[in-house]
Amino acid sequence: MRLYLLRHGEAEAPRTSDARRALTEHGRDEVRASAALLAERPLQAILASPYVRTQQTAELVATQLGHRGVIESAEWLTPDSDLREALDRLNERSEDELLLVTHQPLVGALGGLLVHGHRQQPLPMSTASLAVLDGEMALTGGMQLVSLTHPRV
User: Fold this and answer.
1) What is the rounded distance in angstroms from the CA atom of residue 68 to the CA atom of residue 98?
2) Mean pLDDT, 10 residues at a time, the chain of 153 residues
3) Exposure pattern of 76-96 as b/e (b: 16+ CB <10 Å)?
4) Is the dihedral angle over the CA atoms 85, 88, 90, 92 positive or is it negative?
5) What structural domains does the chain harbor?
């Protein structure tokens, strides 16, 4: 399994609801830069948190890549979702190439758990950072970090 972890791009400052925050123009540019790193990858599915900024991030990636599949909304990809549930849900998936679009602190903690086997060393994910992990399954400590890129725009 090749798992791509993408944090949403820069979002507008909170006004009312965190879930309604949209991407800024700079955030859109960040996402486009990260999406370019996924060119030629045979993504089989894109899953995204239901928050506006992650849905916008996933849509930008799908458009840039010409991805024809549906972007699945996943409640278990919100900022404070349970890591155990995320692991369980990942292991229900059958895709070989899967993109998750989510938030901090979940994305860093999930990546760290998959690579290091514990929560004490989360992956440092800034806005629109892209982590690429490989492994047989999404098991605690069972995946290898292939790359971690932070967009420069």
Assistant:
1) 14
2) 98 91 98 96 96 98 94 97 96 96 98 96 98 94 97 89
3) bbbeebebeebbebbeebebe
4) negative
5) 2-149 (3.40.50.1240)
Euclidean distance between CA atoms 139 and 33, whole angstroms: 29
Residue 113 backbone dihedrals phi, psi, to 5 degrees: -65, -40
Residue pair 38/146 in contact (Cβ under 8 Å)? The answer is: no
Beta bridge partner(s), residue 56: none
Q: What single-letter amino acid sits at 94?
A: S
The secondary structure of the chain in percent helix, strand, coil, rounded to multiples of 5, reads 35, 20, 45
Enumerate residues 6+ apart whose C-beta is below 8 A from 112.
118, 119, 120, 121, 122, 123
Reference 91, options 108, 114, 72; nearest CA is: 114
List phi, psi (to 5°) of 45: -155, 150
How far apart, in Å, are the Cα atoms of 150 and each of 30, 64, 129? 9, 18, 4
- pTM here is 0.97
Cα separation of 133 and 147, whole Å? 7
